[in-house]
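Kindly inspect this one:
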Amino acid sequence: MFRCPDRRIAPRRDVEVVVPVYNEQMALETSIRRLHAFLSDGFPFSWRIVIADNASTDGTPFIAADLARELPNVAHLRLDRKGRGLALREAWSRSDARVVSYMDVDLSTDLRGLLPLVAPLLSGHSDVAIGSRLARGANVTRGPKRELISRSYNKILHAALRVQFTDAQCGFKAVTRAAAAQLLPQIRDDGWFFDTELLVLAGRAGLRTHEVPVDWVDDPDSRVDVARTAAEDLQGVARLAFATPIARFVAVGIASTMAYALLFVLMREGGIGAGAANAIALAVTAVANTAANRRLTFGVMGRRGLLKQHAAGGAVYVLTLALTAGALGVLHGVAPGASRTVELAVLVGASLVATVTRYVALKTWVFAGARRERRVVAAAPADDKPGIALAETRP
């Protein structure tokens, strides 16, 4: 637990360095004393170290408590659940420091990288800063297996999420207090994927990210389950990829097209003409498509504006109907005896052409007003809720 004394005892710091730990009784004391000595030896900003113990079952909490009692500017946070992301979330959300940061307890990253990591945040130049083992100028010592995994993972991030940063998982990051307040409520992962989600959300929010090439030496005693972590990370990547409006629109579009094709085939088999079957199938799926995009793609909830939005969606339906009916007419003019399979292929092709128009219309017209209202509400100022000061016992 946090110990929460009078705020006068623990004044606000410039930088808070969180060290998340789980069953690290062998390395904890040596690493914290080394970090403390480094910061005490001329670090130009005021600082605090927080040992964030997430449910250790060995002697880690006792060692952390002793260090907090002995060393100035060291505090201890004890959590009853595992998860590095959870430890960072809890420690950062309670901090009142101008910049919150973290580093792995093994201190694999050279501590001389800390100043260039936090300085751009304190100066207002950037919102997020990350240490990178893959940036030009980094000096890294590690085995080929972990090198391959790291580079492959970041290639996947670039391909699937279109990110710009070079190294998602280096345990050496910092964010401003304002950026943390904005991002932490949006992050869903409490494990190792926390880092990636933080960076992806920061990029999507337009926050400025600063990269620092680091000197880094692999810890041979790492407790990370590489296979399990990789699987969880890939699940997180898929979740974030689907979280974009375009990805959700595409998913809704695929489902709508499949439903449209099924309805069209069933009605044609029932003896309904191609034109009528097309119009009816489009009408049914257009209503469902507008409702699904309203909620999933554009995040519009509630009944406000519902009828107006569906009416506008009806206008989009008329445009789609014109495109598909025109394509059907051309087909029957060129090949009067075309099979139902060919009819369906032409109609689906015309629907895909109309999809681009549908997305532009939904975004800029049908749901534009509701999206503007959401942005205004999101931008409304919230009450400033300062973090909780931490206890520091001085010798």
User: Anything to note?
Assistant: The mean pLDDT is 84. Strands lie at 15-21, 47-54, 74-79, 99-103, 128-132, 139-141, 172-176, 209-213, 215-217. The CA atoms of residues 244 and 297 lie 8 Å apart. The radius of gyration is 27 Å.
